[in-house]
Design goal:
With 108 residues, the chain is an alpha+beta fold. It has a single domain, classed as Cyclin-Dependent Kinase Subunit Type 2, CATH 3.30.170.10. Helix content is 39%, strand content 22%. It has 4 helices and 5 strands; from the N terminus they run H-E-E-E-H-H-E-E-H. Strands 1, 2, 3, 4 and 5 form a 5-stranded antiparallel beta sheet that branches.
């Protein structure tokens, strides 16, 4: 039987974390400038965050990716929601194509 390598163990850890993270569907602001989403993280992710950062530190993309969050590029961590800090708020600027799509959905 083969031994599990550190890379294999890390991949299993990240896979388990990713399965326990909940992502809201993106939604837009009234001005169609940004889209937002909420991400609920498990306490294990919050503990990792707390070990490395001050309580109010907003994460850069490389930092939240290292904690196991998986989203497309361009999302910016802008806030925590709730006293337990398990819900993180992200936003990204809408490009022109997405602005038009959001306007079309609103008209329907």
């Amino acid at each position: 039987m083969e031994e599990e390598t550190n890379d294999d163990a890390e991949k299993k850890r990240i896979d388990a974390l990713q399965a326990s993270i909940t992502y809201s569907p993106p939604y837009t602001d009234d001005n169609k400038v940004y889209e937002y989403r909420w991400v609920q993280v498990p306490r294990t992710v919050l503990r990792q965050y707390d070990m490395k950062h001050e309580r109010s530190h907003l994460l850069q993309e490389a930092e939240w990716r290292a904690l196991g969050l998986c989203m497309s590029r361009g999302w910016e961590h802008i806030d925590f929601y709730g006293t337990d800090r398990l819900t993180w708020v992200f936003r990204r600027r809408l490009d022109e194509k997405k602005k038009k799509q959001a306007e079309m959905v609103e008209k329907d």
